[in-house]
Amino acid sequence: xxxxxxxxxxxxxxxxxxxxxxxxxxxxxxxxxxxxxxxxxxxxxxxxxxxxxxxxxxxxxxxxxxxxxxxxxxxxxxxxxxxxxxxxxxxxxxxxxxxxxxxxxxxxxxxxxxxxxxxxxxxxxxxxxxxxxxxxxxxxxxxxxxxxxxxxxxxxxxxxxxxxxxxxxxxxxxxxxxxxxxxxxxxxxxxxxxxxxxxxxxxxxxxxxxxxxxxxxxxxxxxxxxxxxxxxxxxxxxxxxxxxxxxxxxxxxxxxxxxxxxxxxxxxxxxxxxxxxxxxxxxxxxxxxxxxxxxxxxxxxxxxxxxxxxxxxxxxxxxxxxxxxxxxxxxxxxxxxxxxxxxxxxxxxxxxxxxxxxxxxxxxxxxxxxxxxxxxxxxxxxxxxxxxxxxxxxx
Amino acid sequence: xxxxxxxxxxxxxxxxxxxxxxxxxxxxxxxxxxxxxxxxxxxxxxxxxxxxxxxxxxxxxxxxxxxxxxxxxxxxxxxxxxxxxx
Lengths: 395, 86
Known about the structure:
The structure holds 2 protein chains of 2 kinds.
Chain A: E1 6-9, H1 13-24, E2 31-35, H2 66-71, E3 75-78, E4 82-86, E5 91-94, E6 99-101, E7 104-107, E8 111-113, E9 125-126, H3 131-143, E10 146-150, H4 154-165, E11 169-174, H5 181-184, H6 186-198, E12 202-205, E13 209-215, E14 218-224, E15 229-231, E16 234-237, E17 241-243, E18 259-261, E19 266-268, E20 271-273, E21 278-282, E22 287-290, H7 294-308, E23 320-325, E24 328-334, E25 344-352, E26 357-364, E27 367-374, H8 377-385
Parallel strand pairs in A: 1-2, 1-7, 2-3, 7-20, 9-16, 10-11, 10-16, 11-12, 18-21
Antiparallel strand pairs in A: 4-5, 5-6, 8-17, 13-14, 14-15, 19-20, 21-22, 23-24, 24-27, 25-26, 26-27
Helix pairs in contact in A: 1-7
Chain B: E1 3-5, E2 19-23, H1 33-37, E3 42-44, E4 51-53, H2 63-72, E5 78-82
Antiparallel strand pairs in B: 2-5, 3-4
């Protein structure tokens, strides 16, 4: 039986943030990290880009060199899952029956991709979440003629762009009217639609998938709800994810689209959550939020470490994320869609969308709530600085 | 299959000594987190947003900010390397 200390469940970016935050603040007690994958903490954003097209090897996705990880003095139990959390007894059970005791526990198990019924039962149909997923998908892409990407969120858009770069025929399919529609607001979504179309991806928007048809057990065609047939011997489903929380059944923690936490990322006494899996009360926004971006994973891990060691500040960061598609680097800060999407307005504050380089503020009502940069890092920084100001002065 | 990485004896992150900031430019995605956390140590290039180190050997009072920038970098592009010759 291990001694008391901090148990981190999950071994991704948020988990690493917890461990580094604890050690940085001088924490000397044992730290156990349990990760379902065999890999030590690696970076997910490159999976849909430079891992898929082969510019990065799996080893190059490591978040820290092994010497740096070793210096953290944690015990990494990789290739294992926690199957039960006993909050009252401050104990956890591993899949091999081992019992770990802890004085504080952090849930950082991330997400599991959604796989709708139509996507089951045929070869050549994939999701992309893990490094192993990316390596399998890459092998398939090297041998495929065409790929159908179902779901034009950030992940689907990045996969589509990477596949075009690898010379594949690409169909990008989404029920919404344009790529990244609900996330970025309608004006940016329209620009993204133009970008993908110009780069040769075939966009099928405003229509969902009815079924897949196969040949000898392998996918051959995607049939859309309007009857359109798309030739594809490879399909990637990028329709979002669910939080990986099945193992918390019976723990007594509140799970509702993530582990529900207070403003200090605390789900129960001595139990915290960080990263994609955490849904916490954001005091600045006045509501529960859950964020799936990479920036939040590290920041929330660090914040939880500090909280464990007595920091009393609520966790209320400004959102920050990015995406790379073709030769476009898009940066986002704050909120991109107001509570009323119709009342959300994009104002270009530098550059020119027509020239492929601009920055804009996003205003809802009387205030700037977010910022966007499209190949314009300098403009983006200025736009980001305007968040919170009255929208009339932002430009 | 158990894959356990045990910590080396007596080595912790609290090791002291000079530290040098190293930015892995190809990894940098220009998020600018480092500039927000440690504006005295980092800037961004105007053309592509890539992080620029303003002073690669931070003073001891700047080390916490330098470590935070490294920990928060969403591309894991910033490292603190111990010893100026490392």
